[in-house]
Amino acid sequence: MATDINKAQFIKDFKDQLYEDFMVKNSDATAEEQFVALAKVIKNYVRPDWFRQKNGIVADKKKTAYYFSIEFLPGKMLQTNLLNLGIYRMVEAALAENGVALNDLVAAERDMALGNGGLGRLAACFMDSLATIGAPGFGNGIRYKYGLFKQKIVNGYQVELPDAWLSSEGNVWETKKPHSAVDVKIYGNVYLEPHDGGVLKPVYENVKTLHAVPYDMPQIGFQNGVVNNLRLWDVEIPEKYELDYPTLADRRRVEDITSVLYPDDSSREGQSLRLIQEYFMVSAGLQTIVKSYAKMGLPMTAIQEKVAVHINDTHPAMAVPELMRILMDDYGVKWSDAWTSTIAVMSYTNHTVLSEALEKWDAALFKEIVPRIHQIVGEIDRQFVAKWASKVDACVVDNTRIIRNGQIHMANLAIIGGHSVNGVAKLHTELLIEDVLKDFYTIFPEKFNNKTNGIVPRRWSQIANPKLSNLIDDLIGKGWRRDIHELKKLENLTSDTAVLAQLDLVKTANKQRLADYAKKMLGIELPVNAIFDVQVKRLHAYKRQLLNVMHIIKLYQDLKANSELELTPRVFIFGAKAAPGYHFAKSVIKIINELAALVNNDAEIGDKLKVVFLENYNVSLAELIIPAADVSEQISTAGKEASGTSNMKFMMNGALTLATLDGANIEIKDAVGEDNIIIFGMDKNAVYDHYQKHDYNARAIYDNNPEIKRVVDAFVDGTIPNIHYEGHEIWDALVSYNDEYFLLEDFDDYVKKQAELATLYANDKQTWQQKALINIANSERFSSDDTIELYAKEIWEIN
Ligand code: 26M
């Protein structure tokens, strides 16, 4: 075990590695070289456990869960790996003795950002938790050469640059496995030909064959000797099929398949390349899984006893027909047996109720790219309709079948082809059942279940917030680092004024850390005595960054009208990437930046208000920002945010949540009690009421509420300079197009609750910190270790 390594041994290994890779002495090495050497030493330490776990799957015939996801967003791995191996302090000290600051090496690692936001980050938390609970659970995804775009702000606008995260060294954590490569076929024609005994076998013509080569990354459990595997696939041109790709352009088209992560989580991206990515990852993963199951020597029809495959959102939903294909075409299993197994193997998580984000593919395109899969989907659809037509209403069948109006509905495929459908927070699952998927619920009520999201506590407390962690050690001992539920003990300390004062000091220190960063990046001084009010997440209309902006405009206008006004100083902090084609979202970014320039440079405003937009929000920046927050903005239109996970990270770091009753905010409220969260605005029923009655009238609110009118007009009357075009776009969205996300209706209550919390912060810091402590104590409820334990027991039935 790595924990047996002592300092002397470690330093020897480290220096040997520097010598081997770079022929350099430690004293002459760059931080990048030192980082690479350290990562390789760690990889060497975990190799035996990693190898054992991978080989144990077949040898011990262990049931294994495979988490299929088109996104994984782990961020940096160095600190997590050191912590989980139990050698963080030892390595830190050993390096320090040799003149190396571990922090410099941490800074040298690049974020692995193979994800857009919540969905990809959840997948990364789950990988850590699977290993930590000691479950055999492997990830399956794509090794994109370029991750989510790097965001620069130029003249207030978002500019997207490629994220070349793979250095010339590749990814130091990964190991390429050429011997485990498999071939994936796309395009061409396929027809069925009778074989011996009348079995129909597909014959392929003119297919294109892709070579899928896996790269494996160790996923280290928290101090338990378990190392799971995250397998990411890259594409190569198979030597055998070189003639199929004679020109450079042909070869480039192949390379494109794993070249970039789609940066669009706002709506479906109808590119055939995306469809190929999805099939490529699913086929390569499943072929490998079935092959390793075959090695166990058990009957193919019992594969569900050893294999669970999870479909993370609809992107990997072709796993359903692909498993059918492999079982039937490659292993001769008959349809009915293959279907029984497939349903038992597959399970699916839904992450959104937004209809524009539910994947649909043009059936003709689908047929062109994956003709055999198209046949199988056609047959699944035919049998589904045949079975249910006589049992339920025609419109129910119509709403649930896979192929309709020339489109393939991927969610329907995932639901019909699996045994479990889960939402990601209580309210979200209820909405799936009552609304979005209600027809499915009448057919398959037993498939539906809730699994409220969680976050991996190690990264979001110990690593992101060492100061708070040390304080917690002093208060309740170190046991919480292993068992997060021990955080509950903090609740006994909420009347201890000395504790509350210490908590305040920690928060201020974290605010200073962020202020230093803002100073370096933007040249702005942030007053750390101000409330740090933070909204960091993807930019979306439904997440309502614009409501936050309207509140800032209101405060600005109030101050301009009366410079004597008593106002608790505030720093508003934003971080958000907009999908490159999402016009509205990009306009909001421009407006935030112009508003920031206006407010920050107004001498009359001084330190009372500051607005900062921190560019390139990613996991590493989240680790810096979240511990510094006093207020966590979770202000989506009720019913729209499936769960949210940053809400959990903020609470774990002692921010108070200002929230609508949406997603997991509701469960946070249940955990901390109404007094320790600030709730505002319409709940989901009020929102749905408007949908039903069609009675929402934004224009009337605008006309009758002078304050709202003043704020909304600031977008177009020159109050904020340089937003002529964007301002009109926003004004129209709010007034002319009837404010789809109900900002105007929720505005008054939002402003009121904002004022109340500002007063509390100014007048009673102690009560504030008391609430913060209650939030920290109860964040134990949102550990992804517990979430994954439930997936393992209730969905995958693994140990
Ligand atoms: C679709 C088509 C083409 C390219 C990309 C996409 C796409 C990518 C990501 C669509 C959606 C994507 O992610 C959705 C997402 O992140 N959902 C969030 O999932 C979190 C984890 O469950 C929840 O906490 C959030 O509430 C939910 O918005």
TrEMBL record:
The modification N6-(pyridoxal phosphate)lysine is found at residue 649. GO terms for molecular function: glycogen phosphorylase activity; pyridoxal phosphate binding. Its cofactor is pyridoxal 5'-phosphate. InterPro entries: Glycg_phsphrylas, Glyco_trans_35, Pyridoxal_P_attach_site. The keyword Coiled coil does not apply. GO terms for biological process: glycogen catabolic process. Keywords: Allosteric enzyme, Carbohydrate metabolism, Glycosyltransferase, Pyridoxal phosphate, Transferase. Phosphorylase is an important allosteric enzyme in carbohydrate metabolism. Enzymes from different sources differ in their regulatory mechanisms and in their natural substrates. However, all known phosphorylases share catalytic and structural properties. Allosteric enzyme that catalyzes the rate-limiting step in glycogen catabolism, the phosphorolytic cleavage of glycogen to produce glucose-1-phosphate, and plays a central role in maintaining cellular and organismal glucose homeostasis. Belongs to the glycogen phosphorylase family. This is Alpha-1,4 glucan phosphorylase. It comes from Pseudolactococcus insecticola. The gene is glgP.
